[in-house]
Write a structure and sequence with these properties.
Helix content: 25-40%
Number of strands: 14
Mean pLDDT: 91
CATH class of the largest domain: Alpha Beta
Number of domains: 2
CATH topology of the largest domain: Rossmann fold
Largest sheet: 7 strands, parallel
Low-confidence stretches: none
Order of helices and strands: EEEEEHEHEHEHEEEEEHEHH
Structural class: alpha/beta
CATH superfamily of the largest domain: HUPs
CATH architecture of the largest domain: 3-Layer(aba) Sandwich
Strand content: 25-35%
Amino acid sequence: MKVIVPIKQVYDLATVRVSRSRGILDTREAALIMNPADRYPLEEALALKADASAQVVAVTMGPAEAEDMLREALAMGVDDTVLLADEAFSSVDASAAVMIVGEAINKIGDYDLILTGHRSTGEGTGEFAPRLAQYLGLPQILRASGLQVADGKVTARRRLSSGYATWEAPLPAVVSVDQGANKPRHPSLSGSIAAYEERIVTLWRAEDLGLTPEAIAERTRTEVKTSYAAPERERGRLLTGEPEQTAGELLQELKARGLLQS
């Protein structure tokens, strides 16, 4: 059984700053990490490797720096990794990204299961898994909190407000794994050393996927016209004094702001 896990490199939000003068997020000194939500499908895939001798392949689209994230995946136990890096990939939107990753999955081939995270940190909307399933023409199960593979199908459990629902889909299929579905492992020291000294990361460019810059540009349909920083939140006023006095001041303040009718 072969399991493919698309993962993504994102900025650590704790290290991102807002540039109000330029109206953008300042990421010049921000740290890059593996998308936290992608650790859960990676863990599910590695569990299938242990239980069912699955071969696990991690694939990402990004700059050369994303190689470090793939080596982290190798250190965790992934068998193979593919980096999709090309200048033509630098300014794509979600639609084009799905095409690029989808063509990479087609090139890898002979897969049984594709596991993704539910959403990515930052601009993530949770659309990647269903878009990828549609592009590849595969059945999909979203936000699985646990899964089993047997008899040519995947059975997944999904949390609901009132309990759980069980979903089944024939293989191959796309399954997005919900955050909190498991406890992701950490790379071992020996695994990290081997990931850098003994393992390789396969690099594919647009031409390796049979894609042209023109086809990628045509698939990219989102254009950012402008960006700006939201206004700073108004600082609150602290009311002090006796309860009766502060309650009266609070009522007057709410009325003055039109938040409370007389």
